[in-house]
Structure formats: structure tokens, C-alpha cells
Amino acid sequence: MPTNVGRLDFSFGLNKSFEIDGAKQKLHELCGKKKWPKPIYSLEKDEGPPQDKKYVSSVQIPTVDDILYIEGDEKSTVKEAQNSAASWIICALQESNYL
Prior knowledge:
Residues 22-95 form the DRBM domain. The structure is a single chain. The chain is α+β, with helices and mostly antiparallel strands. It has helices spanning 23-34, 78-95, and strands at residues 2-5, 8-11, 40-47, 54-62, 67-71. Strand 3 (40-47) and strand 4 form a beta hairpin. The two termini are 21 Å apart.
């Protein structure tokens, strides 16, 4: 899944969904430790019939140097979509040595 965090590109080479349990809460705590603003979640996609809705959420974190941004995987609830985005940005932050 190609992703962008700030100005850096990442390609994790994963063909399936990636998720960290409680990623949204973990990201919130991480931002507090780093003295970054709280993550901002946006709904990027809301498609499908009412009984089969699909959502994609993004998350961004403004830092002193950059605005970190990433989109998550398609999920069946907004909460799951936000957790997916949080999972991906945590992974990208680890890969890019922000952590």
C-alpha cells in the first residue's frame, strides 16, 4: 500500500489490511509524549448502500517540521477506518525514525 507521511513515501508491500489494536488511543498518547497536536481524522470515502457502507479515513498530525498524513484501509465502520489510519501512521512513523 503506497502511503505518504509528510514528504516521505513509503511502500510497505502488504497486500492485506494492517491493524494495531487500540491504535487510535496509542497514537493519541504518542502525540502527547512527542508534544505534537492531537491527530486530526478526516473521512475520505463514504460509499455503498446503507446495509453495506464502506469508509476510508485519513489522519494528519501537524508537527514543527511537517504535516504527517496517511490514509487507512477501507472498513465497514468509521471507527474501524480511523483505527486503520492510526495503525498505518504509527507504522510509518516507526519506519521513518520519527519515533
